[in-house]
Amino acid sequence: MLAKAQVLYDFTAEPGNNELSVKEGETITITNQNIGGGWLEAQNSRGEIGLVPEDYVEVRPWGTHRVKGAVCSHSHTRALVLEEWTSSAGWSFSSDACLFLQSNGNDPWAVFDTNASGGFSNNWAAQPEGTETGRTGSSVWGSSAQGHPQAYQGPGKPLRLCALQSQRIECTQDVGPVWEYPETQLDCVVADPKKGSKMYGLKSYIEYQVTPNTTNKPVNHRYKHFDWLYERLLDKFGSAIPIPCLPDKQVTGRFEEEFIKMRMERLQAWMSRMCRHPVISSSEVFQLFLTYKDEKDWKMGKRKAEKDETVGVMIFSTIEPEGVPDLDLLEVEQKCEQFSRFTKAMDDGVKDLLTVGQEHWKRCTGPLPKEYQRIGKAFQNLSSVFNSSGYEGEATLTDALTAAGKTYEEIAQMVAEQPRKDLHSLMETNNEYKGLLGCFPETIGVHKAAIEKVKEADKLVATSKITPAEKVTMAKRLSTMSYSLQAEMNHFHNHRIYDYNRVMQLYLEQQVKFYETIAEKLRHAHSQFTTM
Amino acid sequence: MLAKAQVLYDFTAEPGNNELSVKEGETITITNQNIGGGWLEAQNSRGEIGLVPEDYVEVRPWGTHRVKGAVCSHSHTRALVLEEWTSSAGWSFSSDACLFLQSNGNDPWAVFDTNASGGFSNNWAAQPEGTETGRTGSSVWGSSAQGHPQAYQGPGKPLRLCALQSQRIECTQDVGPVWEYPETQLDCVVADPKKGSKMYGLKSYIEYQVTPNTTNKPVNHRYKHFDWLYERLLDKFGSAIPIPCLPDKQVTGRFEEEFIKMRMERLQAWMSRMCRHPVISSSEVFQLFLTYKDEKDWKMGKRKAEKDETVGVMIFSTIEPEGVPDLDLLEVEQKCEQFSRFTKAMDDGVKDLLTVGQEHWKRCTGPLPKEYQRIGKAFQNLSSVFNSSGYEGEATLTDALTAAGKTYEEIAQMVAEQPRKDLHSLMETNNEYKGLLGCFPETIGVHKAAIEKVKEADKLVATSKITPAEKVTMAKRLSTMSYSLQAEMNHFHNHRIYDYNRVMQLYLEQQVKFYETIAEKLRHAHSQFTTM
Fold this sequence. Notes:
2 copies of one chain form a homodimer. By secondary structure, chain A is α+β, with helices and mostly antiparallel strands. Chain A has 11 helices and 13 strands. Among the domains of chain A are: 4-59, SH3 type barrels (Roll); 181-315, 2-Layer Sandwich (PX Domain); 351-527, Up-down Bundle (Substrate Binding Domain Of Dnak, Chain:A, Domain 2). Chain A has helices at 110-118, 223-237, 257-276, 278-281, 284-291, 295-307, 329-365, 367-387, 395-421, 423-462, 468-527, and strands spanning 4-7, 27-36, 39-43, 49-53, 57-59, 100-101, 140-141, 159-162, 178-179, 188-198, 203-212, 219-222, 319-321. In chain A, strands 4-3-2-1-5 form a 5-stranded antiparallel beta sheet, with no helix packed on it. The first copy, chain A, has a 3-stranded mixed beta sheet with strand order 9-8-13, with helices on one face. In chain A, a hairpin with a 2-residue loop joins strand 2 and strand 3 (39-43). At the A-B interface, helix 7, helix 8, helix 9 and helix 11 of A face helix 7, helix 8, helix 9 and helix 11 of B. Chains A, B: Residues 1-62 form the SH3 domain. Chains A, B: One of its GO terms (biological process) is endosomal transport. Chains A, B: It is found in: Cytoplasmic vesicle membrane.
């Protein structure tokens, strides 16, 4: 599906210049986003195609909701940066009271603990740009550079939540907050692994071709680039969104075909999962990874992403719950507890299934086919003994016995090969979920710590560590965090339902085929014996 | 199928007496052999039914070949005893030169060894009746009481061999010597095990009902009666025919339903195999077991059978190869070697299959269903975790997951129960054959010892231990033994082909059903997931 765009200003095409005239308010379809030079190729409702200035239209990657403000284009993503924006949750880019700071470590609330013993400091808000933020995990939430949102290097847009229903699963009731989803779901194909080398062939590596469905233009990436992307996404979104690990690094045997194929499959699954996430898929760093134009573009984008300060809990500052009331503490706690219980239980369930699956895999590739092989050999052996009887008229029996024996040998091979056909995807999906679920304890930990801090707020007010107004802001922000967690859980549930439906269907389909094929083979073997 | 009989003498029915007139040479069908009082009920070709004197007809239990001589009736079997008969192989019931004697032990040729050191004795031929013969395994071959065949208490008829083709298996070539088979195959049903007691309830036992297809009249037997029959058959036929052991004796748990059922099934298989053997099935002792009239009849028959002197190698004296030339030593040796190799190889093959089968049985009833159960539980567990998500709209998934889980639990049960349905009969048949094959080394041992003795014959003639005429007789008798062994092997092969065809069909049929049922169950489980 092609992306739609809304025309923001009238534009009149210059004749003979391959341009398309558009009117404000008109909806057009982007047919090529990669024209460059500030132009897009688009098609209007009458089917006419032509070039339109990028700045004159608003591309809508996350739905049809219009967001106030001007449009400016980044290198590749069509992101909205608001000139002056204050979110409904109370975030703004003015030098707001900086309550939630993270100095270092992974706990965004560590500063509170520090302050509890050493006095509350508000100075971080005024900390100059470029100071220890980003990669080390230190991050600022609710604060940024002073005054101007332009200076804010976040995801470039508020991550909006709205109370939409899930579109994948029939759902008669409201599921609660959900992320705003793009009309067209991003996806990409990871394929065509090629051996590359550098330093005059001294260093070899495998390069994968990654082709997004938006541009249909392949870009090349090595595993280490995926790893770089993972680190960026983890830094940037890890507090709100589980970012599953990449498939295992491996040094030995990494040029073996089997390994490359497996890694590619897992990178594909990881990328697809990231593409399916509305927040991640529309982020600048992710778009850079998928659609960089050339080496220079890639390097510049990398540098920019590495300097991104909207990392850690700062991600919550970019989230705007839309048209929903603030949640009270009790509700937040209940939701958090519910998610904690669920993810823990599912983690156990998934691990249990994985253990069972691994054992079944072992049996299916080890003793079981050996046994079928031995049954097959025993029949064939008996057949050749019978053949040596010197008794006339048993060719039918010995042929049938040999055929039956061979059938069991075929079954042995089928049994041994079957796990790759069915158990494999079940295991891969569950492994993916194991990875995802492994991220939740931290996400939920951040959440729980925030709850504790809000619970302490009264004491902080009493000891004049914070003002009553700051306490209100804290609660408001916790409400946003909760909405974010709920949206993420809903995203998780939605995709979980889809994934498990799909993988179970796949598994059972292959299982049915497997047993049907065996039955068919045995039916044939049976037919070769004489009916007397 | 009803037995046919040939009318030996004209008989004119007395009016109003329910009799049937018959003419010499006419073929009639016996409709009731158990009329008693010297009468049979028979039907002629025009469909008329009436009574005919037993002595006027020759019932043909082993085919249509007419045997010269008069017909006399034993208690229940319709056996031919020839008034004066000399078999083509040179056996006769006159006081023939007694060359082959067995004094004691199982080696019928032991006397030669004894004589080699202690002088050759011909005296055994004149040994009075009732002297140490029979049960202890000592037996006389080629000798019997003097002069009169009436005194000979053997199987009551010569066991005839003829070069018939197998009737079971399409066979384009002559298979060599075969036993003469009855037109109607004897069979019986072992059923209805009942607990009986004696000594005022102090001793309990299980009594089985045995119903032969000839009389359709059930008789009762305890396991110990079967065991008695086994001992009689082993004594009488063991040198020529493999008599497989009975199912294991068991003292503890022998009143448990499962055990009784299993023992009954095995007694049935054993009885059916005995019934299928033309020599055994037509023997007096076997007929007594199946058709005794009352307790007195049974006891008398038992006493008679226990006194039977035609035991051990004596059985060969009752075998008459029909219309075939004597075999030379080389041929005899070659055949013997061939059978020895084959039975050894088949014994190995059968044991191998049994080992494989036992392991498969263990896996099918042990770890495999446990694994399917665990898979089933893991799916159901995941389903109940999903159910606790609080997310709306996943009832379809959780229901389907539960159903899939239950399906795998059902499969677990199916897997565990399957061996009883298919592997069981395969194992039982192979166990039967293991038992049969275990008898061959002894049978072949008897044969090989006879070959060695015939090889030594020249030396014996040279040292005047035997006359040249006796040497010729020895060779002739060895030829008969070889024909007997060949007939037995052909019987074995014929039934082996039938049995393995049948059991493999049964096995594969059940296997097909098993896999089809699983596929069907999984197809149903699959259909419950949403197609998206």
